[in-house]
Design brief:
homotetramer, 126 residues, alpha+beta, Pantoate--beta-alanine Ligase, Chain: A,domain 2, four-stranded antiparallel beta sheet, two-stranded antiparallel sheet, 33% strand, elongated, lyase (chains A, B, C, D), DHN_aldolase_MptD (chains A, B, C, D), dihydroneopterin aldolase activity (chains A, B, C, D), MtpD_C (chains A, B, C, D), MptD_sf (chains A, B, C, D)
Amino acid sequence: MTDETEATDATTPTTAEAACFEAGIKFGSLYHQFAGTPLSLESAASIETAIEEAIENQPHCTDVTVTVQRDALEAELAEATAEYTELTGRFLEVEIVLEYDGCEVHTRMAMEDGYPLMRLEEVRGR
Amino acid sequence: MTDETEATDATTPTTAEAACFEAGIKFGSLYHQFAGTPLSLESAASIETAIEEAIENQPHCTDVTVTVQRDALEAELAEATAEYTELTGRFLEVEIVLEYDGCEVHTRMAMEDGYPLMRLEEVRGR
Amino acid sequence: MTDETEATDATTPTTAEAACFEAGIKFGSLYHQFAGTPLSLESAASIETAIEEAIENQPHCTDVTVTVQRDALEAELAEATAEYTELTGRFLEVEIVLEYDGCEVHTRMAMEDGYPLMRLEEVRGR
Amino acid sequence: MTDETEATDATTPTTAEAACFEAGIKFGSLYHQFAGTPLSLESAASIETAIEEAIENQPHCTDVTVTVQRDALEAELAEATAEYTELTGRFLEVEIVLEYDGCEVHTRMAMEDGYPLMRLEEVRGR
């Protein structure tokens, strides 16, 4: 009998794990909501602010920082001789800090080896 | 022989029709790119600006005006006792002016009978 | 006096122009709803069907044909040594036929000079 | 000196926490990619399959099950006397199983008290 109880307990998520799950949701939301947005050097600042404020609405999000990589954007527009392109991971750096039930989670998305990598950096307070 | 040529000509889009097609593309883009964005009274202003500047990047777009309907938003948040909701057509009024090859098209999205209706209002210069 | 009336009349959209506006909405919707979807050779068929059936729900849409360009997809995956990528215009060919108030509009999206170009091809019945 | 090392260690994510972060990313992606898709009873089956296959492309995803809630959809369409609506959380039940470095995570999204709730259910193998 107690075996079954213990087996169940052993799979119950900890507070820190739940906090990390919440942090992942915010990253997935941010990326798939805004990827594809028409983007130029002129509109970069307004999309940064809008993404930050939109995602900060979500539960447990204490701080969101979005930086459009102007150098990468400028290089792409120069090569394509275009005035705008679509927002995608290679133009974005994102930091999200989330607090969930006393546990603070720091996460970050940046380019690594040519891919936008979402990474869990620190879990504090567990 | 000439019949075939004439038949082809008769189906070739006019400049004004092409302009109206372009205007429709902008409306569909705007709606399906940004619908679903987490939205609160605090973040309403930044998403308005970001949508305007993003869509103005697109070819032929001369002016985009986006207004989040604060009254409708406030009413929904009060009823749901929530701090944010998702951006959807009932919180949006949009005007887009587009110029294509000398033809100016005015379009508008607003609620009508409970549905967000996208409407072609004026075609000038044809 | 009559001048003013005539000026107003002169800017009222024709049925064919309204049909072209509707066709544009469908293209913008399709592109910005589904761009960014994780895509592999294995999932290409199911996303084609889902896009077709989703857009055919929209008013006036009589036929939507979506073809994922397997060759372009395979080439990209081989170069990146990845198993999936994101759906974007260079992997898509789309044809939409729309009927609006007796007017039939044929439209198409395909790559041209390295860009996905949405084009109004024929307007019949005006 | 060792204090600093220990402090760093204490905040380093565990494998299970990283697995939960990955699971959250998938849920956020799924929701914000497909919310807003035109949806009817006829197109429900194809969007279920397309979402499952698209998200299963993502790293570490072993199983994705998507069920459109036909009853809720039918009720909404009947009330609105419309033939389609937009895909949103209240029409979706989703289960995602993810395996990350020997750790298996079970997650689920379903309606609770009128809200679509994403929940971490079990963490196995830690």
